[in-house]
Design goal:
Helix content: 55-70%
Number of strands: 0
Structural class: mainly alpha
Radius of gyration: 30 Å
Strand content: under 5%
Number of helices: 4
Shape: elongated
């Protein structure tokens, strides 16, 4: 037997569909504003970190471009055994090199 609205009124219990009105917890300011504040703060932190990593990457690229001569690159390849193990610059853990 399906519960009817009359049964809920008689028992003094709110109907299950009453939770779907505009006073719902998701629409109320008590939940919505803190959620928006949290999402805004998380976005701001992520944006700041992304900009810092990009700026540092550009700084280091400029420094290394001055130092990376063909002799230095050859010595680096010999020391790191790039032919055998691969270039660590292409590693998934190289966060600063992801945009290149």
């Amino acid at each position: 037997m399906q519960p009817s609205p009359r049964m809920h009124i008689a028992a003094g219990v709110p109907h299950p569909a009453a939770a779907l009105t505009h006073n719902s917890a998701l629409v109320s300011k008590k939940v919505l504003l803190p959620t928006l504040a949290w999402l805004g703060a998380a976005w701001a932190v992520g944006f700041y970190v992304k900009n810092q990593l990009h700026g540092r990457s550009s700084d280091f690229d400029g420094i290394f471009a001055q130092q990376n001569t063909p002799d230095v690159e050859a010595a680096r390849k010999r020391q790191l055994k790039v032919e055998q193990y691969g270039d660590p610059r292409n590693s998934l853990l190289n966060i600063l090199g992801w945009t290149k």
